[in-house]
Amino acid sequence: MAVVLAGGTGTRVGLSIPKQLIKIAGKPIIEHTIAAMQQSPLVDEILVLMA
Questions:
Q1: What is the pLDDT of residue 12?
Q2: CA dist 6 to 3, 40, 47, 50, Å?
Q3: What would the pLDDT profile of 2-51 be if each residue is shown by its tens digit?
Q4: How does 29-41 read in b/e, with b if 16+ C-beta sit within 10 Å?
């Protein structure tokens, strides 16, 4: 199991949206993170905790 801690706003980067929703290469950061976790043979379950 992998636990992804995805919380906080992007105020330090000058945005009013949550950091995990900032887009990089057209996809939110959280999507990149989940995709990387899905590729790992050690991870059979992903838990995303958002605050």
A1: 82
A2: 9, 19, 10, 5
A3: 999 988 887 788 888 888 899 999 999 999 999 999 999 999 999 999 87
A4: bbeebbeebeeee
pLDDT score recorded for residue 10: 73
Distance (Å, rounded) from C-alpha 43 to C-alpha 21? 23
**Cβ atoms of residues 22 and 15 within 8 Å:** yes
Contact 6, 20 (CB under 8 A): yes
Q: How far apart are the C-alpha atoms of 27 and 43, rounded to whole Å?
A: 22
CB neighbour class for 47 (10 Å; exposed up to 12, middle 13-18, buried from 19)? exposed
